[in-house]
Amino acid sequence: MAELQIVRASEVSEAQLRLGMIAGFSGYAAAMQPDEQAFAFMMGQRGLKKEMSWVALSEDRVIAVWLVSVDGGTGYLIASGTDPDFRGQGIARRLAETALRCLRDGRVRRFQTEVMDGNEAAFALYRSLGMEVERELACFDLSGVAASFRGQLAVGPVSWRSIMDETPACRDWSPTWQNNDAAMERVEDGIYCLGVRDADGLAGYAVLLRATGAIAQIAVRPDRRRAGVGRAMIEGLFPVLDGKPLRVLNADASDAGFAAFMTALGAEPMVGQRELACRL
């Protein structure tokens, strides 16, 4: 067997990274097969920092990845995985320890990620690195929700820049890394935003990732809830889906009101995730 090399992601090509990630997720419930465009969008949305990310090479083939983003003093694990033929050899831990050491040297003081429910191997690794569960995340499939397009509210497309300063007033919880405001700025050309305004400003908004059909953010100002604003925005997203299933990813599972809203729409629960973090 060829000797493994641990190198920065900046030392391999984009194609090698993409194929390495695909191999690393092989056999999992969340197996991914992104093409070049989808991979570029995913990494752009999450803010991949190649100089902070690490991969394992065997005969010039990426067989394990630990892809990282950094924003200020916080690091984020975008994706990690090992080719099935190389699992059980401690490669993921070697990559993790190398990446975390690199982050500490770069004065990053917090590290976080999400792990899908049921992926106990990854969860155990993250816990062994000192990461703790910070919150549970819920995901929903809205592809079976009927759109009636009643038009009772003035819901219309808006630019992200025109609403981004007002969105926190509508939210009860912070979006996860891949859905947060910085991520929306990074992929502004690939999102579709709807907004509802009244005399007091932004009453509600929704942000759709065009490439995936996922709702990255949706929120209604507290004083306008239970008045049809959220449903009107959901209905307003259907015409731009281009056949993709509509989904909500990584909602805060502790928000009973949001869960009730999803149930009222007829959304189906999907496999959830756990958000983990640690100090470095």
UniProtKB/TrEMBL annotation:
The keyword Acyltransferase applies. It comes from the Bacteria. The keyword Metal-binding does not apply. Pfam families: Acetyltransf_1. This is GNAT family N-acetyltransferase. PROSITE patterns: GNAT. CDD domains: NAT_SF. GO terms for molecular function: acyltransferase activity, transferring groups other than amino-acyl groups. Keywords: Acyltransferase, Transferase.
